[in-house]
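User: Can you recover a sequence for this backbone? Please restate the input before giving your answer.

Assistant: Of course. Working from this structure:
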């Protein structure tokens, strides 16, 4: 069961002011959608997102919340693009007891207020990877991320995330929420059984602790961003064996953790 998704952006008439002159014009603005995610019949969350790739987003979100682990656990995925819901059925019982939540900007909002997702860090294992990465591939991959960020160039209203190795970019998504963009990428990787042990998570936005936890859960050894990491993200990166690169712009970048993975 499916439907028709909204376009990720649309035309908007505006009044443009420039150098003392007002005139009619238009611009492109991003669309928002509310996607409801069900797991084994239980309504888990409503995600505020861009109206694309709902299946990958829902699966990636469940992975990031620790509610999915193995592809073999999935019995069925039903997605209704028109009504904006995804229903996932698994062989394992659903242990989520928080009830319905609304996720905005990477936080789960319920009656107790906002709290970061992925808070079971003590249950996580370090990323196991022997991969090394050539330093000169970092600028090339970040340039490729920017090149493919067509919605951002048109609207300025989305974040981008991609999964790559040292040679190729496998998948890239843009979304109004940077967490959604990452969840889609990791959901795609999971559904297509991509081994992440030698992969790179590319980001347009900052590397927060929640983003870092998503990478750890899916075994990604290198996170590269055009922006900055947070202090807690770097603590977690040190602990779980993830190399974090920030401010990757032009031919420069900062290595914040596990520099031994970068070869020059």
């Amino acid at each position: 069961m499916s439907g028709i998704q909204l376009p990720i952006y649309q035309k908007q008439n505006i009044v443009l002011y420039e150098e003392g002159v007002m005139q009619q014009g238009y611009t492109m603005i991003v669309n928002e959608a509310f996607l409801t995610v069900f797991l084994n019949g239980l309504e888990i969350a409503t995600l505020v997102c861009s109206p694309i790739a709902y299946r990958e987003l829902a699966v990636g979100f469940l992975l990031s919340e620790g509610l999915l682990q193995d592809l073999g656990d999935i019995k069925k995925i039903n997605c209704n693009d028109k009504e904006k819901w995804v229903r996932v059925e698994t062989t394992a019982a659903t242990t989520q007891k928080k009830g319905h939540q609304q996720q905005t900007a990477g936080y789960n909002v319920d009656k107790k207020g906002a709290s970061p997702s992925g808070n079971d860090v003590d249950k996580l294992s370090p990323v196991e990877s022997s991969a090394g990465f050539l330093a000169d591939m970092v600028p090339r991959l970040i340039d490729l991320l920017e090149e493919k960020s067509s919605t951002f160039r048109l609207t300025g209203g989305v974040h981008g995330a991609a999964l790559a190795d040292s040679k190729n970019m496998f998948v890239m998504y843009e979304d109004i929420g940077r967490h959604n963009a990452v969840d889609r990428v990791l959901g795609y990787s999971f559904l297509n059984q991509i081994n992440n042990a030698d992969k790179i998570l590319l980001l347009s936005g900052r590397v927060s602790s929640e983003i870092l936890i998503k990478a750890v859960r899916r075994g990604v050894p290198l996170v590269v961003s055009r922006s900055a990491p947070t202090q807690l993200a770097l603590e977690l990166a040190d602990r779980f064996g993830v190399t974090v690169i920030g401010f990757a712009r032009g031919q420069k970048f900062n290595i914040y953790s596990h520099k031994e993975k970068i070869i020059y």
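That completes the design. The radius of gyration is 19 Å.
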